[in-house]
Design a protein that fits this description.
Order of helices and strands: EHEEHEEHEEEEHEHEE
Number of helices: 5
Strand content: 15-25%
Structural class: alpha+beta
Oligomer: single chain
Distance between the termini: 31 Å
Strand order of the largest sheet: 10-1-12-11
Length: about 220
């Protein structure tokens, strides 16, 4: 079974946001939803100082906190590690959004209507007639069927050559591949460089690695 991962070379990223806009344009542009963002630092105060741009998206953690937070089973982890959202099961409660320590999930806004109803004891109450949104996030362009609820729990989507962000990154700062393959580009990059993963102290074990150093011997 493959173990997919992304490596992001922070030395190459120029903060152009091409990856963000390609993702938004080709996957659709839901109201209020975003799958990818770039943390852009303030302009460098000293001449010659280097600014580091930080792409953020779903980390596809090995132990994702969003999985346990989801009350409907809409958030699932496939056998190869991909964390997906089944839109048909998502009720838009936002529990997974709050549980994600990386801010990598958002809710696509829907119109919501409230109707007055009576409970069994005769008291009045409000009933939500439509869910307020559906969680969206990066899925490495692997689980398009999940949006329509068509992926069964044990089904692995057929792999594509590369996620769109990798394909269109003009700085060639993004890499994607199988960590179980020692000859894959991502495996080689992890051997050659010191990498970091965000909030490793939480024990979520993200599948996204960042390079910030020079190549080691």
């Amino acid at each position: 079974m493959p173990r997919w991962a992304m490596v992001i070379d922070l030395r190459k990223c120029i903060g152009c946001e091409t990856c963000k806009h390609v993702c938004k344009d080709l996957h659709g542009s839901p109201t209020g939803g975003i799958r990818r963002r770039i943390l852009i630092p303030a302009p460098a105060a000293a001449a010659g100082s280097q600014r580091t741009f930080f792409p953020i998206h779903c980390m596809h953690c090995e132990d994702p906190s969003c999985l346990d937070a989801c009350p409907t089973g809409a958030t699932r982890q496939l056998p190869d590690g991909f964390v997906i959202v089944d839109a048909a099961k998502c009720m838009g409660c936002g529990a997974c959004v709050l549980a994600c320590p990386y801010g990598a999930r958002t809710l696509e806004n829907h119109e919501c209507t409230l109707t007055m109803t009576k409970t069994d004891d005769g008291s009045a109450g409000l009933r939500r007639a439509a869910k307020v949104g559906t969680c969206i996030k990066c899925d490495f362009c692997r689980s398009d069927g999940a949006a329509a609820g068509s992926i069964e729990p044990q089904t692995v989507p057929a792999p594509q050559p590369d996620p769109l962000c990798v394909k269109y990154c003009i700085a060639e700062a993004l890499y994607f591949g199988d960590l179980e393959d020692p000859d894959s580009e991502v495996s080689q990059l992890l051997r050659r460089h010191h990498t970091i993963r965000l909030r490793e102290d939480l024990g979520t074990r993200p599948s996204v690695y960042y390079i910030a150093d020079e190549e080691s011997d």
